[in-house]
Amino acid sequence: GSRLLYNFYIKADYLLVGRVFGPEAVGIYTMAYRIISDPVRTLTSTVNDVAYPAFSKLQDEVDRLRTYFFTIARANLSLIGLVLVIIAVYIEDLLVVGGYQKYFDAIPLVRIFVLVGLLRAVSPLIPQLLNAVGQARLNFFYSLSTSILMPLAFLVGAQFSLNGVAWAWATAFPVAVSLLFYFGARALNAPLPMLLGKIVPGGLVLLPALGTGLGLQWLTDAYLPSMPIVALVLGVLGTLGVGLGLVALREREALSILRGRYSAANA
Protein backbone atom coordinates (compact mmCIF):
# COMPACT_ATOMS: atom_id res chain seq x y z
CA GLY A 1 0.00 0.00 0.00
CA SER A 2 2.73 2.48 0.93
CA ARG A 3 4.63 1.81 -2.29
CA LEU A 4 1.51 2.28 -4.42
CA LEU A 5 0.71 5.61 -2.75
CA TYR A 6 4.33 6.71 -3.10
CA ASN A 7 4.30 5.98 -6.83
CA PHE A 8 1.07 7.97 -7.15
CA TYR A 9 2.22 11.21 -5.54
CA ILE A 10 5.78 11.02 -6.88
CA LYS A 11 4.46 11.02 -10.46
CA ALA A 12 1.47 13.32 -10.03
CA ASP A 13 3.54 16.43 -10.77
CA TYR A 14 4.76 15.02 -14.11
CA LEU A 15 1.20 14.33 -15.23
CA LEU A 16 0.05 17.78 -14.17
CA VAL A 17 2.99 19.57 -15.79
CA GLY A 18 2.33 17.75 -19.07
CA ARG A 19 -1.34 18.61 -19.05
CA VAL A 20 -0.96 22.28 -18.07
CA PHE A 21 2.35 23.31 -19.66
CA GLY A 22 2.89 20.80 -22.47
CA PRO A 23 5.52 18.20 -23.43
CA GLU A 24 8.45 20.63 -23.70
CA ALA A 25 7.87 21.75 -20.12
CA VAL A 26 7.76 18.11 -19.01
CA GLY A 27 11.23 17.60 -20.47
CA ILE A 28 12.64 20.63 -18.66
CA TYR A 29 10.91 19.73 -15.40
CA THR A 30 12.00 16.09 -15.58
CA MET A 31 15.61 17.05 -16.23
CA ALA A 32 15.64 19.40 -13.22
CA TYR A 33 13.97 16.86 -10.96
CA ARG A 34 16.28 14.01 -11.92
CA ILE A 35 19.44 16.10 -11.58
CA ILE A 36 18.59 16.24 -7.89
CA SER A 37 16.61 13.06 -7.26
CA ASP A 38 18.93 10.58 -8.98
CA PRO A 39 22.07 11.25 -6.89
CA VAL A 40 20.01 11.57 -3.70
CA ARG A 41 18.23 8.26 -4.35
CA THR A 42 21.48 6.48 -5.22
CA LEU A 43 23.32 7.71 -2.14
CA THR A 44 20.46 7.17 0.31
CA SER A 45 19.83 3.65 -0.96
CA THR A 46 23.48 2.82 -0.32
CA VAL A 47 23.21 4.04 3.27
CA ASN A 48 19.85 2.32 3.75
CA ASP A 49 21.49 -1.01 2.94
CA VAL A 50 23.63 -0.47 6.04
CA ALA A 51 20.98 1.20 8.17
CA TYR A 52 18.17 -1.36 8.18
CA PRO A 53 20.19 -4.32 9.54
CA ALA A 54 21.71 -2.05 12.18
CA PHE A 55 18.33 -0.66 13.21
CA SER A 56 16.96 -4.21 13.47
CA LYS A 57 19.88 -5.31 15.61
CA LEU A 58 19.42 -2.39 18.00
CA GLN A 59 15.61 -2.32 18.16
CA ASP A 60 15.55 -3.49 21.79
CA GLU A 61 18.27 -1.05 22.89
CA VAL A 62 16.64 2.32 22.40
CA ASP A 63 19.53 4.46 23.63
CA ARG A 64 21.99 2.84 21.25
CA LEU A 65 19.44 2.85 18.42
CA ARG A 66 18.92 6.57 18.97
CA THR A 67 22.66 7.25 18.88
CA TYR A 68 23.14 5.26 15.69
CA PHE A 69 20.16 6.84 13.95
CA PHE A 70 21.31 10.37 14.76
CA THR A 71 24.83 9.59 13.56
CA ILE A 72 23.77 8.07 10.27
CA ALA A 73 21.18 10.82 9.66
CA ARG A 74 23.82 13.53 10.16
CA ALA A 75 26.11 11.60 7.81
CA ASN A 76 23.45 11.66 5.12
CA LEU A 77 22.69 15.34 5.57
CA SER A 78 26.36 16.36 5.55
CA LEU A 79 27.57 14.27 2.66
CA ILE A 80 24.53 14.24 0.38
CA GLY A 81 23.97 17.89 1.18
CA LEU A 82 27.51 18.62 0.01
CA VAL A 83 26.73 17.01 -3.35
CA LEU A 84 23.59 19.15 -3.60
CA VAL A 85 25.53 22.33 -2.82
CA ILE A 86 27.94 21.54 -5.65
CA ILE A 87 25.04 20.95 -8.04
CA ALA A 88 23.30 24.17 -6.98
CA VAL A 89 26.41 26.29 -7.49
CA TYR A 90 27.75 24.69 -10.64
CA ILE A 91 24.60 23.54 -12.43
CA GLU A 92 25.07 26.00 -15.31
CA ASP A 93 28.68 24.91 -15.82
CA LEU A 94 27.69 21.24 -15.60
CA LEU A 95 25.09 21.72 -18.33
CA VAL A 96 27.55 23.62 -20.54
CA VAL A 97 30.30 21.03 -20.17
CA GLY A 98 27.80 18.22 -20.73
CA GLY A 99 26.41 19.88 -23.86
CA TYR A 100 22.94 20.38 -22.39
CA GLN A 101 22.58 24.13 -22.95
CA LYS A 102 19.03 23.55 -24.20
CA TYR A 103 18.08 22.78 -20.59
CA PHE A 104 19.14 26.15 -19.18
CA ASP A 105 15.48 26.82 -18.37
CA ALA A 106 15.76 23.99 -15.84
CA ILE A 107 18.36 25.83 -13.72
CA PRO A 108 15.89 27.70 -11.46
CA LEU A 109 13.98 24.46 -10.96
CA VAL A 110 17.15 22.60 -10.00
CA ARG A 111 17.92 25.13 -7.29
CA ILE A 112 14.41 24.86 -5.89
CA PHE A 113 14.63 21.07 -5.86
CA VAL A 114 17.88 21.29 -3.87
CA LEU A 115 15.75 22.34 -0.88
CA VAL A 116 13.67 19.20 -1.29
CA GLY A 117 16.78 17.10 -1.77
CA LEU A 118 18.12 18.14 1.63
CA LEU A 119 15.02 16.73 3.30
CA ARG A 120 15.11 13.60 1.18
CA ALA A 121 18.71 13.04 2.22
CA VAL A 122 17.38 12.14 5.67
CA SER A 123 13.71 11.19 5.34
CA PRO A 124 14.24 7.73 3.68
CA LEU A 125 15.98 6.55 6.84
CA ILE A 126 12.80 6.83 8.87
CA PRO A 127 10.75 4.19 6.99
CA GLN A 128 13.72 1.84 7.48
CA LEU A 129 13.65 2.64 11.19
CA LEU A 130 9.89 2.10 11.43
CA ASN A 131 10.14 -1.23 9.59
CA ALA A 132 12.96 -2.35 11.86
CA VAL A 133 11.05 -1.64 15.08
CA GLY A 134 7.81 -3.23 13.87
CA GLN A 135 5.86 -0.05 13.14
CA ALA A 136 5.59 -0.38 9.36
CA ARG A 137 1.91 0.64 9.48
CA LEU A 138 3.03 4.21 10.21
CA ASN A 139 4.69 4.31 6.80
CA PHE A 140 1.27 3.73 5.26
CA PHE A 141 -0.28 6.62 7.19
CA TYR A 142 2.55 8.89 6.06
CA SER A 143 2.20 7.80 2.43
CA LEU A 144 -1.57 8.28 2.58
CA SER A 145 -1.32 11.82 3.92
CA THR A 146 1.41 12.73 1.45
CA SER A 147 -0.56 11.31 -1.49
CA ILE A 148 -3.36 13.73 -0.59
CA LEU A 149 -1.32 16.82 0.25
CA MET A 150 1.24 16.80 -2.57
CA PRO A 151 -1.13 16.57 -5.57
CA LEU A 152 -3.21 19.38 -4.08
CA ALA A 153 -0.05 21.46 -3.69
CA PHE A 154 0.93 20.74 -7.30
CA LEU A 155 -2.49 21.91 -8.46
CA VAL A 156 -2.06 25.19 -6.60
CA GLY A 157 1.51 25.69 -7.84
CA ALA A 158 0.51 25.03 -11.44
CA GLN A 159 -1.85 27.99 -11.31
CA PHE A 160 1.21 30.26 -11.19
CA SER A 161 3.98 28.77 -13.33
CA LEU A 162 6.20 25.77 -13.94
CA ASN A 163 8.41 27.05 -11.13
CA GLY A 164 5.27 27.11 -9.00
CA VAL A 165 5.03 23.32 -9.21
CA ALA A 166 8.62 23.06 -7.97
CA TRP A 167 7.84 25.53 -5.18
CA ALA A 168 4.91 23.29 -4.26
CA TRP A 169 7.50 20.60 -3.54
CA ALA A 170 9.62 23.01 -1.51
CA THR A 171 6.72 24.26 0.61
CA ALA A 172 4.34 21.30 0.94
CA PHE A 173 6.85 18.46 1.23
CA PRO A 174 8.34 19.79 4.51
CA VAL A 175 4.81 19.83 5.92
CA ALA A 176 4.16 16.29 4.73
CA VAL A 177 7.48 14.91 5.91
CA SER A 178 7.08 16.48 9.36
CA LEU A 179 4.62 13.65 10.10
CA LEU A 180 7.28 11.11 9.17
CA PHE A 181 9.80 12.82 11.45
CA TYR A 182 7.23 12.74 14.24
CA PHE A 183 6.78 8.99 13.74
CA GLY A 184 10.55 8.58 13.79
CA ALA A 185 10.86 10.53 17.03
CA ARG A 186 8.13 8.39 18.59
CA ALA A 187 9.91 5.19 17.53
CA LEU A 188 13.07 6.46 19.20
CA ASN A 189 11.25 7.57 22.37
CA ALA A 190 12.53 11.08 21.77
CA PRO A 191 10.77 14.44 21.46
CA LEU A 192 10.58 15.76 17.91
CA PRO A 193 12.65 18.88 18.78
CA MET A 194 15.38 16.60 20.12
CA LEU A 195 15.40 14.54 16.92
CA LEU A 196 15.67 17.65 14.77
CA GLY A 197 18.26 19.18 17.08
CA LYS A 198 20.49 16.12 16.70
CA ILE A 199 20.19 15.97 12.90
CA VAL A 200 20.21 19.60 11.75
CA PRO A 201 23.81 20.33 12.91
CA GLY A 202 24.94 17.94 10.19
CA GLY A 203 23.94 20.64 7.73
CA LEU A 204 26.12 23.35 9.26
CA VAL A 205 29.07 22.31 7.12
CA LEU A 206 27.05 23.19 4.03
CA LEU A 207 27.11 26.94 4.68
CA PRO A 208 30.90 27.41 4.43
CA ALA A 209 30.95 24.92 1.54
CA LEU A 210 28.37 27.05 -0.26
CA GLY A 211 30.42 30.19 0.40
CA THR A 212 33.53 28.48 -0.92
CA GLY A 213 31.72 27.32 -4.04
CA LEU A 214 30.35 30.77 -4.81
CA GLY A 215 33.75 32.35 -4.20
CA LEU A 216 35.55 29.89 -6.46
CA GLN A 217 32.90 30.36 -9.13
CA TRP A 218 33.47 34.12 -9.06
CA LEU A 219 37.24 33.65 -9.34
CA THR A 220 37.06 31.17 -12.20
CA ASP A 221 34.50 33.30 -14.06
CA ALA A 222 36.85 36.26 -13.72
CA TYR A 223 40.15 34.56 -14.55
CA LEU A 224 39.26 31.40 -16.53
CA PRO A 225 36.29 32.47 -18.67
CA SER A 226 37.51 30.54 -21.72
CA MET A 227 38.35 27.32 -19.84
CA PRO A 228 35.00 26.00 -18.58
CA ILE A 229 36.15 22.44 -17.91
CA VAL A 230 39.17 23.55 -15.88
CA ALA A 231 37.04 26.08 -14.01
CA LEU A 232 34.43 23.44 -13.22
CA VAL A 233 36.99 20.90 -11.99
CA LEU A 234 38.72 23.47 -9.78
CA GLY A 235 35.44 24.69 -8.37
CA VAL A 236 34.04 21.24 -7.63
CA LEU A 237 37.26 19.95 -6.09
CA GLY A 238 37.71 23.08 -4.00
CA THR A 239 34.15 23.02 -2.69
CA LEU A 240 34.30 19.28 -2.06
CA GLY A 241 37.63 19.62 -0.27
CA VAL A 242 36.40 22.32 2.09
CA GLY A 243 33.15 20.45 2.75
CA LEU A 244 34.80 17.11 3.47
CA GLY A 245 37.43 18.82 5.61
CA LEU A 246 34.72 20.33 7.77
CA VAL A 247 32.89 17.00 7.97
CA ALA A 248 36.14 15.37 9.10
CA LEU A 249 36.45 17.93 11.89
CA ARG A 250 32.82 17.87 13.02
CA GLU A 251 31.51 14.43 12.08
CA ARG A 252 34.17 11.76 12.48
CA GLU A 253 31.53 9.10 13.00
CA ALA A 254 29.82 10.24 9.80
CA LEU A 255 32.99 9.59 7.83
CA SER A 256 33.33 6.22 9.55
CA ILE A 257 29.92 5.31 8.17
CA LEU A 258 31.04 6.32 4.69
CA ARG A 259 34.09 4.09 5.04
CA GLY A 260 32.09 1.21 6.52
CA ARG A 261 33.97 1.33 9.82
CA TYR A 262 31.14 2.46 12.06
CA SER A 263 28.58 -0.17 12.93
CA ALA A 264 25.79 -0.79 15.36
CA ALA A 265 28.33 -2.18 17.80
CA ASN A 266 29.85 1.30 18.11
CA ALA A 267 26.55 2.99 18.93
Strand content: under 5%
Helical percentage: over 70%
How many individual domains?
Answer: 1
Largest beta-sheet details: none
Intertermini distance? 33 Å
| Global Rg | 19 Å
Enumerate how many helices there are, as a single number.
11
The mean pLDDT is: 91
Give the low-confidence spans.
none
SSE topology sketch:
Layout: H1 2-21, H2 23-57, H3 62-98, H4 107-120, H5 125-132, H6 137-158, H7 162-187, H8 192-199, H9 206-223, H10 228-250, H11 252-259
Helix pairs in contact: 1-2, 1-6, 2-3, 2-4, 2-5, 3-4, 3-9, 3-10, 3-11, 4-7, 5-7, 6-7, 7-8, 9-10
Can you tell me about this structure?
The protein is mainly alpha-helical and 267 residues long. The protein has one domain (2-266). 82% of the residues lie in helices and 0% in strands. The chain has helices at 2-21, 23-57, 62-98, 107-120, 125-132, 137-158, 162-187, 192-199, 206-223, 228-250, 252-259. α3 packs antiparallel against α4 (107-120). The protein is flat. The mean pLDDT is 91.
